[in-house]
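QA checklist item 7 of 12: single-chain prediction sanity check.
[x] sequence parsed
[x] length recorded as 272
[x] structure emitted
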Amino acid sequence: MDVHQSAGGVGPEFAGLFDSSTEHASPMRLDQAVNGLRRMQPELSAGQTIIPAQRRALTFFGVAGLTLWTAAPDAAEGLAFSLLALAFAMVTLIRIAALWQFVRPNSDSKPAGVIVDPGGPLPPYTLLVPLYRESSVAAGLVKALLALDYPANQLQIMFITEADDDDTRMALIGAGLQKHMHVITVPDGAPRTKPRALNYGLTFARGEFVGIYDAEDVPDPGQLRAAVAAFQCSGPETACLQARLSIYNPGRNVVTRGIMAQTPQAMESACP
């Protein structure tokens, strides 16, 4: 689960906010979801494939390479092969490191703990749950999120679905949603991606903290309290936390061991 500290406003009560975003859809919300990052921080957006600095660097190296090839073709050829060999060597080293993690004995120490009972009142929390064609797991997901140890009046849970995914919406509605749980419908449009769906859901977020879950997640009931405590103990430079991921069958075969090797094994405490 990714936990992000939101810069938005805070509302103490989420109950009864809305049940579907169809009537709340607006060109402004859609434009913010698709183009907001490109306008505010274009250097971080993939909407602009090559930024000016990269264009200048490519031009410089292109001209330098062409000049060297014209003046000394033998030296240019040797340099080109050396650069290709260096890139291949770096990829090989990364794969060797990954292979070591893949085959080494599972001797990880116990996860570092965090303070799970933050002092003072708990802040409002928004959870974004993007779903697509997930009707088969909807009931289990709702049950898992209902088990979270967090005040319902401080919790806003949004199940974000695509416009053509009626099956998932019907499964969610039939899964016993509580007042703090809402089904969001992302209007049709391009690109149809998970980031677009999350950005659209974020325009409805009212929490001081924002977390993201996937359809298959079964969070520990105390996870949100632990995240709040970790943020409180961290400095202002901490904007995002990655929670410990527990695979239920990590030792079953090489595939499950490989998955475990790629996942964080602890959410380190920032507290002494």
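[x] summary fact logged: The first helix runs from residue 27 to 40.
[ ] second reviewer sign-off
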